[in-house]
Amino acid sequence: MKFGILVNEGPYQHQASDSAYLFCKAVLAKGHEIHRVFFYHDGVNNSTRLTEPPQDDRNIVARWSKLAADHGVDLVVCVAAALRRGIKDENLAPGFRISGLGQLVESGIQADRLVVFGD
Amino acid sequence: MKFGILVNEGPYQHQASDSAYLFCKAVLAKGHEIHRVFFYHDGVNNSTRLTEPPQDDRNIVARWSKLAADHGVDLVVCVAAALRRGIKDENLAPGFRISGLGQLVESGIQADRLVVFGD
Amino acid sequence: MLHIVNKSPQERPSLDACLRIAESGSILLIEDAVYAAVKGSASAGKLAEAAKKHRIYVLLPDVEARAIADRLVDGVTGIDYGGFVDLVADHRACQSWL
Amino acid sequence: MLHIVNKSPQERPSLDACLRIAESGSILLIEDAVYAAVKGSASAGKLAEAAKKHRIYVLLPDVEARAIADRLVDGVTGIDYGGFVDLVADHRACQSWL
Amino acid sequence: MTEGVAKKFMFVNRTAPYGTIYALESLEVVLISAAFDQDVSLVFVDDGVWQLKKGQQTKGIETKNFSPTYRALEGYDVEKLYVERESLESRGLTEDDLLVDVNVLSSSELGELMAEQDVVLSF
Amino acid sequence: MTEGVAKKFMFVNRTAPYGTIYALESLEVVLISAAFDQDVSLVFVDDGVWQLKKGQQTKGIETKNFSPTYRALEGYDVEKLYVERESLESRGLTEDDLLVDVNVLSSSELGELMAEQDVVLSF
Q: Which CATH number belongs to the domain containing residue C10 in this structure?
């Protein structure tokens, strides 16, 4: 089955990104497919390559990048939301791409389920 | 009278940064002094020079920078919160400086009033 | 003490917490908290009761943005950002009920 | 329909909205919403009532983080992230009450 | 567009405008989804009904007043707007206070409508 | 430190742990403020009381369990911890459920304490 995922909050401030990541890992472990993870609202802040969390904490951005590298998951950052919040190609972490909101609607159409994580 | 200001949320997502900015302008208009504006939690995201909001919307980051340029207001971004969220000197907007949490406590001690804006 | 509330009374318990705990002082409603002062809403009675113990202010720019200026309950005072600054200055300390 | 709630029942009205509106389907409590299932809390009765109309699940990793595994009301089913995936797959659609 | 049969998309708006950005950025998704020829519904519940209040004046908060966009939705063929009666009433509002025509539904009518959807996005 | 007389700082914790970062980052301010030799109080109200619940196990959410830090506060001379009775009771909690010793106060006792503060930070 194909899952679409929407993440509406940035890393650390809210649990949304953590929950979405653990859900994605479980989706793959169950043998399902992830159609796309779309980052909207403050969710775009999950894609900055400049984060440097404390050594004893999880690295949320790096985890997403690794998910893309290991499983080819499509990580899409909304361009309009990203411009508002200062996410551009120059600070984008590996594995993410910036594109339009149409990619979210398309994921809603093409995936069998769309699961939303937010505040 | 000396006012300290604390901003706990990022630009656009919550009204906190807007309210804090309009409050600061009114503080200055009344002839008071702003001891410091401290950005904590997602508030650190107010300091990225990479934001590019739509033409018909306010530019929250540029407004803060202008407040620093025009009135010498001290804009301090918490270093620990900033590292977690990907704010560093390389993407820091003019007028902001990155420093420790002690600067917030010091503002609480030295300012006559500390006003908090958040979610 | 000046108590600043910024959340809708139907969305968060912050106004309830403030009214339960604050023994005295003034209350300023800003941002989505201005909805608490709407006549005929679920929180109108609560606010009328609070007005017996506290002076209650609403921030007019937030009231106007939300289109409720013509339906505020009696006994609340509208102020602008300059008035907000004066209120903070006139109280020994302030607290935001985030 | 699978209804996903992620907010504490004493902090936000999302569980209330879900219970008022959702006619049928299952409810999954994640993140701070797991507090809704605490025995002896203000929401326990509400949840017991809801369990008559809906199957109610809680996400165990969130329950354990919040140290409430030993005090859940009867009639709620604990699941892990794999179970969360199965629940989404088993329902025709899902809705997050943000 | 991408497939032959349209899916039923529902946007559930539960937050007030201006205090947070959700209402504004939700509208942006709605406008895009209209371009994909899907079956789109908008629902306003809890503080979300405040998004439709007539007479918003945002000069004092130096923020864009986006409420006229709701009036423009018709031009995008987004015509299914639903409001929960209980949410209106507990805020002292009536249909006359709203800047667009809506269908006012009871909580359970709304629940039935939700149960029919393929994709539900809540903001 | 910066001035002769200590100010009364109160930290009001009203949010649950893990769902948001406020509890964790609030603790970081508390620890710093202790180094400034101020008169520091911590208050736990509403869902904030959950921060002190014994037995938190965060392996399953892959997040750091920061609750042991509350036990370390004493070492920083942060010893004034207050919990509102009503907040405890409406969550089915008692003092025995908490991982540190606290003073349980009524709402009005808490209100009196707040009224004496110089700086109140709420998270």
A: 3.40.1260.10
Query: Active site includes B24?
Result: no
- In chain B, whose CA is at the least distance from the CA of F33? B105
Report domain A2-47+57-117's class.
alpha beta
* CATH architecture observed for domain E8-122: 3-Layer(aba) Sandwich (3.40)
E61/C41 touch (CB, cutoff 8 Å), yes or no: no
Give how many domains chain C has, as a whole number: 1
In tens digits, chain D (98 residues) has pLDDT values of: 999 999 999 999 999 999 999 989 999 999 999 999 999 999 999 999 999 999 999 999 999 999 999 999 999 999 999 999 999 999 999 999 99
pLDDT tens by residue, chain F, 123 residues? 444 579 999 999 999 999 999 999 999 999 999 899 999 999 999 999 999 999 999 999 999 999 999 999 999 999 999 999 999 999 999 999 999 999 999 999 999 999 999 999 998
Domain extent listing, chain B = 2-47+57-117
Question: Rounded to 5, what percent of chain D is helix, strand, coil?
Answer: 40, 20, 35
Quick check: D86 and D57 in contact, CB under 8 A?
Answer: no
Give chain E's contact residues with D (Cβ, < 8 Å): 12, 14, 45-46, 84, 86, 107-108, 110-112, 114-115, 117-120, 122-123
Domain boundaries, chain F: 8-122
